[in-house]
Description:
Elements: E1 12-18, E2 22-30, E3 36-45, E4 49-50, E5 53-54, H1 57-75, E6 81-86, E7 92-101, H2 109-117, E8 128-140, E9 143-146, E10 156-167, H3 168-179, E11 184-190, H4 191-199, H5 202-207, E12 209-214, E13 219-225, E14 228-235, H6 239-250, H7 254-264, E15 277-281, E16 291-295, H8 296-321, E17 330-334, H9 343-351, E18 354-357, H10 376-385, H11 404-417
Parallel strand pairs: 1-6, 6-11, 12-17, 17-18
Antiparallel strand pairs: 1-2, 2-3, 4-5, 7-10, 8-9, 8-10, 12-13, 13-14, 15-16
Helix pairs in contact: 2-11, 4-10, 6-7, 6-8, 8-9
Amino acid sequence: MKKPRIAPKNGLIAAIDVGSSKICCFIARVADDGRPNVVGIGHQVSRGVRAGTIVDMEQAEMAVLSTVHAAEQMAGETIQEVVLNLSGGYPASQTVGVEVPLSGREVAEHDLERVLMHGSQINGNAERRLIHSIPVGYSIDGSKGIRDPRGMFGERLGVDMHVITAAAGAVRNLTNCVAKCHLDIKALVVSPFASGLSTLVDDEMDLGVTVIDMGAGTTSLAVFFDGHVVYTDSVPIGGGHVTNDIARGLSTPLTHAERMKTLYGNCLATPADEREIIQVPQVGEEENGLMNAIPRSILIGIIQPRLEETFELVRSRLESSGFDKVAGRRVVLTGGASQLSGVRELSALVLDKQVRMGRPLRIHGLADATNGPAFATATGLLSYALETDAEVMRPGKAREQASTGFIGRFGTWLKDNF
């Protein structure tokens, strides 16, 4: 069943990506072919946000306002509703399986409602808030892999629900920050899910793939299989931690540490690194004051262990979740921190998987500067914004799922109990 779009009557959709290093806003107009065409972009350095969580409400509000204003000026439009990402709050996922009896009769619409509402027997956690409730597959009499059970016969109807929750306090702080900017939040989407919608092709979603979104404050992951996101998690390490390691290890200001990471950084050492000398400004010295001269190998010796730790934590999370096999041997890297030289090769070594870089695939109107991995989440939010209850969507294909009303009512219950 094709889902109705959530775009307003003027055809505009808007997305805000609130990250630890940058905040960006994309405004797009839906074209005749159904694909969004970006008409307004605003982005600036993030303030008041750490590890995806609001730590200074006033600073974060000012940053969001400035970003949205820049996008509105470029688009020549004013927005009222946005789709918002969530990268903090320790998102966690679980799969909930429920069954109801059919007594051998044909599956009807009310049976789908019954099996979804049967999830109300689950005990939730009051400190967690529901972000997504995604039906990832139906079963009849234990036979799994059924996408639309309506019209089929059996004794028992079951559904597996992928439930993603996050810390209620972090979610409320983020939504209140955006609400203070006089914006209505149409949907909240975990960052790796949005990045997957932006960067994955349909075959990857069907066969199994892991999306690793490498941000400044967190590295989040999502496993897609059979067209659905089936697992999400995050580790509290990002590109900002690499910058801090460089600043501490070389006693240099953070701005110079970021510059050295970008210009000279690499995740893998080479013999030539010993011969290449880098000038390192020192903390507290004047602009043209004392500098230390170090070989590039020292810089790489600081960067490589931190990124190895990051990918080892990702591998550990995948293995402990049981979704490592489901994800297959395919990994897509995205996010600003994935642009560091050698990240693809290092991740392939640590994860023992085939790795490619992920860029936005389904959006028109992006300049080269905003068409890279750093903007995958923002463009994925636009893709999500094209459909209501997009948890069940696979880009470019019609969906045959339970009706929006059934999923919505099940989601309402979960919001009250998680």
